[in-house]
Amino acid sequence: MKHFYSEIDNITLTFGDVHENAAGLEYIPLYFEKPIENGFAFCEMNLPVLNPYKSFGFSEMDINELVKYARNNAPLIWEIAREKM
Q: In angstroms, what is the C-alpha Rg of the chain?
């Protein structure tokens, strides 16, 4: 991912640029990760949908918290991604 956003509780959020899908709708890929004993836990999702499509090492409760965090920070993430265009 291209843009570092935050690190909270040893979980790092990075995100990519604004992209456009086949339907012409904009989205931003998000990537959460944290170190674990045998590597890294990760979770990938896109704004604005916030439906995790790939994850490893995070519990269902953790993923729900990551979605909540992404939703709460979405306006700022969009703003930063658009500045980089």
A: 13
Q: For residues 28 and 78, is the Cβ–Cβ distance under 8 A?
A: yes
Question: Whole-model pTM?
Answer: 0.89
pLDDT band at residue 1 under the 50/70/90 scheme: low
How far is it, in rounded angstroms, from Cα 65 to Cα 55?
Answer: 14
Record the tokens describing residue 12, joined without a space. Answer: 């790092």
Q: How many residues does the chain have?
A: 85
Amino acid at 85: M
Q: How many domains does the chain have?
A: 1
Range of the domain at 42: 3-19+26-83
